[in-house]
Every structure is written in structure tokens, then in C-alpha cells.
Amino acid sequence: MMKASLLFILSFLVFSISTNSSFTSAAEAPEPVLDVAGKMLRTDRHYYILPVANVFGKFRGGGLTLSGIGKNTCPAAVFQEMSEQENGIPLAFLPVNPKKGVVRVSTDLNIKFAYPKTCGQSPVWSIDNYVYPSGDSFVNIGGVVGNPGPKTLSSWFKIEKFGYQDYKLVYCPAVCSYCRVICKDVGIEYQNGKRRLHLTTDYPLRVVFKKA
């Protein structure tokens, strides 16, 4: 009788620990990013990043695209379309740990245009001047997918909630525990009459995601 009771108690403890661990893991998982249709962003699909006009009307225009810096075609960098009618180029989001293929907020990820190499560079987003981003730091291409660590710090971004239904893009990589990182939002800077993506602490680009 005592053996049966002891076996029951042990079984109950194991069940309780397993259940609590499952609940804890579920509770700790960041919420998924949703597109404009209310569906979760998936790692195997492409999306347009579209701006949300804020109350000041500071950011309008269209989706995100590639364009040459200055008067040259190459090198290329990430810009915003000037026309609200243009969705830009579709993009993929590739999390550092792509569990079940879902893109989640506050999670390190790579952002990649649905294009082959442009100007001899990979279509993966990358930050220039990321070591000392106290000055101008712009969003370019030529980044690396995966391989998290100090050598790929410039290629990691995050999606964060910004308001009730909107989001913002953030540069704040956590893929290197001992690396010094200055976290900033992704915003817009006017450069030669075009809207170029850069890092800012003032006016984040408020965005939503639309399935391509």
C-alpha cells in the first residue's frame, strides 16, 4: 500500500513539474507579429513593409525599396517609396530561432529583400557604422543570414509593438551577450530628395505588414 502511495505521489510530482514547465515556456514566448489581415507572419512568406501615417503626418509615402546612394546606381541602400501607391519590394523575416516558422516581436531576425544580389551585395539588411552609431547610421544591404555572433551584429533587427496594432523596426541585437550595442529605432532621413532608412532616437517609422 505504501509503495502504491509513494508511486502515485512521484507520478503526480513529475506531472506537475512537466505541466508547469510547459506553461512557463508558453508564457515566455513573445507574441507573434500580425499582418494587416490579422494573420501571423510566417518565415516562408514575403511581406510588404508599409508606413502608417502618424498624427503629425511626418511619414507617408509607400513601401520599402532599393535605390542607389546619391546619383550613383551602386552601391544600393534601403529607401522608402515616395508614392503611397507603391508597395515597394517584398521582404522575408528570418528569426534567429525560427520555431514553428512564426515571426515574433522582440526577437532577433534578419530582413531580406525578395531579390537576388544587387550591386554585387546580398539582399539582406545591414547597418553601417553600427559599432559607434552616435552619428548617422543607415540601413544598407550586404548583410548575412544566420550565424549569430559578433561578426554579424550589423545584420540583426527586431520588430516591436508600437501602439495598439502598429509596429516599428528596431536595431538592438542580442545575439552577442558580451558585445556593446547602442539600441535605436529605424526611421527616415531625407537624403538628396529621397527617403532613406536610418537609425534614430526621435521618430521611428510606424509600420504594418501586408502579405505579398
UniProtKB/TrEMBL annotation:
Keywords: Signal. GO terms for molecular function: endopeptidase inhibitor activity. InterPro entries: Kunitz_inhibitor_STI-like_sf, Prot_inh_Kunz-lg. The keyword Signal applies. CDD domains: beta-trefoil_STI_VvMLP-like. Belongs to the protease inhibitor I3 (leguminous Kunitz-type inhibitor) family. This is Kunitz trypsin inhibitor 5-like. It comes from Coffea arabica (Arabian coffee).
